[in-house]
Structure formats: C-alpha cells, structure tokens
Specification:
- Catalyzes the ATP-dependent phosphorylation of N-acetyl-L-glutamate.
- The structure is a single chain.
- The chain is an alpha/beta fold and about 280 residues long.
- The chain has a single domain (about 10-280), classed as Carbamate kinase (3-Layer(aba) Sandwich), CATH 3.40.1160.10.
- Helices cover about 35% and strands about 20% of the residues.
- It contains 8 helices and 14 strands.
- The strands form 4 sheets. An 8-stranded mixed beta sheet has the order 5-8-2-1-11-13-14-12, sandwiched between helices.
- The protein is globular, with a radius of gyration of 18 Å.
- The protein starts with 12 loop residues before the first strand and ends with a strand.
- The mean pLDDT is about 95.
- The structure holds adenosine-5'-diphosphate and N-acetyl-L-glutamyl 5-phosphate (X2W).
- The site of N-acetyl-L-glutamyl 5-phosphate (X2W) has 15 residues, from helix 2 and strand 4.
Length: about 280
C-alpha cells in the first residue's frame, strides 16, 4: 500500500519506538505499527525501530524472586537485573516484535544495540535526577548512549532490512548496559537526521488530563511542553519522553510524534497529518 502523503519523505529516515507493553498483543502490533512501517517502506522511506520491554522485564524479575526498583522512571540495574534485561529484550520481546512484523510483511532484522557496535554506551555516572530527590542517583549498570553507528544502520537498510533494536548498548570491551528505550530512540533519530521520530505508547499522545484520552494535545512547541512539565500536567513516564524529545529536536530531528495504536491507523495517519492522531512536537 503506497501512501501519497508520505512521498516527500522518500529516502529519509523515520525512527519508530515501540513501548514494551505494545509487544504483548502481536496481532494488534502487526495491524498498527507493522502496517504503518510497511506503508513507510512502500513509500521509499528508510525505517529503524527501537523497542523497550519494561513490563516484561518487571514480570520476569518478579517470577525470579527479584524486587524491581524504579528510580524516576529508570530501572536500577545490578548484575541480576541485567541478566533479566538480556532475557526479556533480546529474547521474549525481540521475538514477539519479529513475529508481529512477519505478520505485517516487514523484513525486520531484530537484535539489540549490542550487535556490531550499533549503539555504544558507557556507564551513567551518578546524577541528580528530577523526581528522585537532591542526592545523585547511581543506577548501576544503566548506560548513556555515547555513539550510534549511522553507517551500519544505512547498510542494513540498503540490504533491504529494517533494523529493530532492543534497548541494550555496550562499550568497546563488550560490557552491556541497560538503556531506556526512549533514550535510545531519540539518540538514533538525531544521529540519523531522521525526518520523523514516533514514540508509540499506550496513550494517544500528551493529554491535558492524563486520565482522559479525549484531552489529547495535537501539537506542542518546546516552550508549551516545558510549561506543561512545570505545571504538573505532564507527569511520570511522560516526563523523560518529552524532555528527551525536546533536547533531540534541537539536535536535528525535524518532528517528533507521541502516538498510540488506537485506532490501528493512528501512526500512519499521524505521519501524513501531524497532530491528527497524536501529539506532534514541531521545532519552535
Ligand atoms: N499528560 C500526560 N499525558 C499522557 N500520559 C501521561 C501524562 N502524564 C503522565 N502520563 C503517563 O505516561 C505514561 C506513558 O509513559 P510510559 O509508561 O513510560 O510509556 P512507554 O512504556 O510506552 O515508554 C502513560 O501511560 C501515562 O500514565
Ligand atoms: C534504564 C531503563 O529504565 N531501561 C528500561 C529499558 C526498557 C524500556 O525502556 O522499556 P519500555 O519502553 O517498555 O518502557 C527498563 O529497564 O525498563
């Protein structure tokens, strides 16, 4: 299915981030994100996908008798937690996303940012984090993205595949780190000079009232978004998503869209008409 509204983006990159929760319903993921990615490819757009797996990792930690510890939306990651992240991101979620894309006819090559140095990361030094008190927080084996191999992404795309990465990255010595998937997606999109980044989540966009999906804000400028964080309209998991988006908008991504999968066409329609189905951040 070729979509005419997308033809301006031929040859450009779109980056799509899938929250882990969405991978739990494969037919639904195929009919929404899968169908949209297929349409992007048919329009000659290069696509890279980053996925998370937060809920799956939490469930596995509990099954193994480990206590998940989240600090301001990030997971404290010791050695045992890192093992869980490997199992869920590179195992369960990777295969579930691969099967959804298979169903949608998308040639997805699913791996993690560890592969071939696609995502280089280093251990995050202790940092004061908004929402976590005045003391610096040491998150353990959590990484900051320090490099994205854009040329490797291009070669995978040139070979006819869609690179799909779980949010692990590593250093040159092969040490893996757990990284928030929104962080990986924003960094990849900036490095690829993406025309669009889609953060696909379980909410239809940024909401004026977080408990009422009918209060979606179609567009936000950086100044408006900062005001919504300061006034408490944007809370919890939405804060890092928006903060990182704003930072990367300044680094060269042209537009960032926070969008859901209900209706199934939401992502595709949002790509064609910014603000029609999600929240579009446009450079100020
Ligand atoms: N103003 C807001 N608009 C939309 N969602 C919000 C808002 N404030 C807080 N949230 C919360 O942010 C969550 C999305 O972030 P998160 O759970 O981290 O998503 P993901 O796992 O897809 O990365 C929503 O489920 C919602 O509970
Ligand atoms: C450091 C950190 O918090 N990493 C995340 C990585 C997975 C993720 O981001 O998954 P979602 O997109 O489903 O939230 C975590 O451990 O949950």
């Amino acid at each position: 299915m070729a979509v005419s509204g997308l033809k301006d983006f031929r040859g450009r990159w779109f980056v799509v981030k899938i929250g882990g929760e969405l991978a739990q319903d494969r037919p639904r993921l195929a009919a929404s994100v899968g169908a949209a990615v297929r349409a992007f490819l048919d329009a000659g757009i290069r696509v890279a996908v980053i996925h998370g797996g937060g809920p799956q990792a939490t469930e596995l930690q509990k099954k193994l008798g480990l206590q998940p510890r989240m600090v301001a939306g990030r997971r404290y990651t010791d050695e045992a937690t890192l093992e869980v992240m490997k199992m869920s991101l590179a195992g369960q979620v990777s295969v579930d996303v691969a099967s959804a894309f298979r169903l949608a006819g998308v040639p997805a090559l699913c791996t993690t940012g560890m592969s071939a140095g696609l995502i280089t990361a280093e251990r995050r030094p202790p940092k004061v984090m908004s929402g976590a008190g005045p003391e610096p927080v040491d998150l353990g084996l959590v990484g900051d993205v320090v490099g994205v191999d854009a040329d490797a992404f291009r070669r995978v795309s040139d070979a006819g595949f869609v690179p799909v990465l779980g949010s692990l990255g590593g250093d040159a010595r092969g040490q893996p780190f757990n990284i928030n998937a929104d962080t990986v997606a924003t960094r990849v999109a900036a490095k690829l000079g993406a025309a669009k980044l889609f953060l696909v989540s379980n909410v239809p966009g940024v909401l004026a009232n977080k408990d009422d999906p009918s209060t979606r804000l179609p567009t936000l400028t950086p100044a408006q978004a900062r005001e919504k964080i300061a006034s408490g309209v944007i809370q919890g998991g939405m804060i890092p998503k928006v903060e990182e988006s704003l930072e990367m908008l300044e680094e060269g991504i042209e537009a960032i869209h926070i969008v859901g999968i209900s209706p199934a066409e939401a992502l595709l329609h949002e790509a064609e008409r910014p603000g029609s189905q999600g929240t579009a951040f446009l450079r100020g």
